[in-house]
Model the fold of this input.
Amino acid sequence: IRYNQLIESSFYALLVLSDAIFLCFYSFRLLCEYSCAVRSSGRIKCMR
Done:
């Protein structure tokens, strides 16, 4: 077992995972802002 390759692959997996989490949060925030823009009555306010 070459530890260097293992560390490199695990670091790459962590990078991909963090990218996926960031994309998920970003799309969720966009969806929240869009739904708040649609409901412009003022009853529902989005948390930023």
